[in-house]
Amino acid sequence: MNPVKEHDTVPGLIRNIVKNIHPDTHPFMTHKVKDTWVDISYKEAIEKIDAISAWFLNVGVLKGDRLSLIIENGPDYVYYDQALQQIGAVNASIYPTLTEAEIEYILNDSGAKTILVGNPFLFKKVLKVVNSCPSVLRIIPAFDDFEKHCEKLKLNAGVVGFKQVIEEGKTLLPQYATAIKIAREAILPSDLSSLIYTSGTTGIPKGVMLTHSNFVETVREGLNQIPNVEPSDIFLSFLPLSHVFERTATYYICMGAGCKIAFSQSLELLAKNMVEVKPTIMNCVPRLLERIHDKAMKTGTSAGGMKTKIFSWAFELGKEALKYAEEGKKPGLILSGKLKIADKLVFSKIREKTGGNLKFLISGGGALPKNVGIFLGSVGIKVLEGFGLTETTGPMAVTEYHRQVYGTAGRIMTGTQVGIQNIDTKQIYTIQTHDTFKPDYLSEEGEIIIRGISVMKGYWNKPEETAAAIDADGWFHTGDIGRFYKGYIQITDRLKNMLVNAYGKNIYPTPVENTYLKSSKIEQIFLVGDKREYITAIIVPPKELLQETFKLGNEFFERPDTFIEDKEIVDWVAQDVKRFSNELAKFERIKNFIVKRNPFSMEAGEITPTLKAKRKVIEKNYAQAIDEMYLQEAEAD
Fold first, then answer.
1. pTM
2. Is 283 exposed, middle or buried (CB count within 10 Å of its CB: 0-12, 13-18, 19+)?
3. d(CA 385, CA 460)
4. In this predicted model, what pLDDT tens digit does every residue of 527-563 receive, in sequence order?
5. What domains can you pick out in the chain, each with its CATH number?
6. Which intervals hold domain AMP-dependent synthetase/ligase (predicted)?
């Protein structure tokens, strides 16, 4: 039975666990301290949460106040979030990768009163802008020796260490325990829980207002959709908790179902942490799964001889088994026997790299290339694809556990209506819900519009943008293009990404880019061609593969020139561009390209924290190189 009650609030979730699922001594979280994984019980966590709440009340934090965080994933995020939520304050998280200017904007727009800061690097960023943020009264560093970074500065805000906040809060708790309980019970489901600022591929960030009901009902319906999530499960968390996907689908889902949260040390140590923690469930973005696919394919096909033949044989068997699974059937005795051998020789070794205990992965934040999903499914790594936005509290559709349709984002969750609307005429072709699902349903393509429990309250301080996003009938316009395919929602592209060539032909970049991303020689690709006669691209090859193939040192990637002009490398990339172009219509094919030395990055403002390309930024940053590429092609003609 789903443990999440209707009309609950975010702080109610953790209290429900210790009341109805686990004893308070049960492990809630685990993180690595030096070389050891250390468990934290619900009792330990709640004691710290209550102490921080007492401190907040003592310094005058009121219901509705915005309290900010800029910190990497870990227990401190949970303590601070739960402490502010249970007294009715609002979580205003900030991505650690944002620039100083963006941090300043969010602090001022949200009117944040305090900010929790995770490490010295982030602390220095905050110190540079905090005097321009008059609402910020206190900075709370969550690390030791922070005093040396601010001792010579004249700050308008006070600075108090997080350890001190907790210790002082413990002494204040007897005085404020009753007030905390009253505040927690006074929170309404309709009250504001969080402001999550959209990273956005265009324009300035907008604060998405999400209520307690948005989060709790999304968690409730998510657990209805995937009842395979159990209190014994272990989630490994590595995506930023400042993003709605990880917040809802890992942290709050775990609090809803009573699962244990393990916090990865970093993206660089993720592979090591997976082997150590042996998670049963993980949320991830497509790029991570592409890397798992690329590494496994490289290992399997580069060995040569009999090993490569066995790998290819096993992979083909896995694909055959997937066809049965998609139709809800089981493979016959002969195929089952062969699969056992393939699993022992090939598949189990790949799964060991993920810890060996994965029940499934959930992929979100972008479209998963179909070939990657098929590969992982073939080797026994189940991937459930989901779809949602910040404005829909994360997932509002997800693949059912028992039915994979790779290249789609799953079945609509209960409590949500999804429409497909004609971009030009605004006619709604179809409206689908969880209950209208038909496994063979195919709809026309258009903009995806959403109405239901997960849709945001609006954009903070932006009534005009709210009215533009949510129409008079309550439909939120996602800006995503898609359709229903085999009953599941399928995302084609972003409306704002659409390229219209000089002949008026509409080209959606994502499916074209995904075709070229099948190449092991292409790590990132950015399509160009709006109002142009033909398509070109900026391509980034994988650094390790370049180094290995052309015997390159790190100095090659430190050169000041942005683009690689070595003919041997360009021709090497061109081989795969030509090969995969054959899978596309002529007007979608890349006619020319330039090879970028280093990847597009968040630091340069070229991609969002969920790794989506910021089209306007990239086109502006490389306008000269793009124009020269078209000029060269015109001269060649």
1. 0.83
2. buried
3. 30
4. 998 878 889 999 999 999 999 999 999 999 999 999 9
5. 10-187+226-282 (3.40.50.12780), 498-636 (3.30.300.30)
6. 33-460
